[in-house]
Amino acid sequence: MKKLILLFTLFICASTLNAQTKEELEAQKAEKQAAADAAQAEADAIQAEIDALPGWRKGAFGTIGGSISNFSNWYAQGAPNNSSGNIGFTLNAFANNLQ
Fold first, then answer.
1. Which helix (H) or strand (E) holds 97?
2. Could you state, in order of their start, the residue ranges of all structural domains in the chain?
3. Global pTM value
């Protein structure tokens, strides 16, 4: 039992030795946030230079769809038992001249 209490006390002491205060953590956060803000400002400036360059902005988008139909014993039709299927797709491309 003495060893268990000693081990528990040692564990508590070891964990409190490495603990930081709230002020120290806030100071570290402020330092890291300042570095991150500087890096973000630099990245924004570079992106503004890229956006200002003339050229073409191009791309494409589209859709693909399908339908499968199976009619069984539809006597109102000319062919009461038929199957059909189709596939449709669209593709739209664009190129915008940036000046």
1. strand 82-98
2. 1-53, 55-99
3. 0.41
pLDDT value at residue 28:
94
Place of tokens 């003339």: 54
Say which residues have a Cβ less than 8 Å from residue 52's Cβ, sequence separation at least 6: none
C-alpha 59/C-alpha 73 separation (Å) is 47
User: And the tokens for 44?
Assistant: 């924004």
Q: Which amino acid is at 62?
A: G
What would the 3-class secondary structure string for 37-95 be? HHHHHHHHHHHHHHHHCCEEEEEEEEEEEEEEEEECCCCCCCCCCEEEEEEEEEEEEEE
CA distances in angstroms from 46 to 9, 32, 40, 49, listed in the order given? 55, 21, 10, 5
Per-residue pLDDT 10s for the chain (99 aa) are 888 788 878 877 766 666 678 899 999 999 999 999 999 999 999 999 988 888 888 999 999 999 888 777 666 666 667 778 889 999 999 999 887
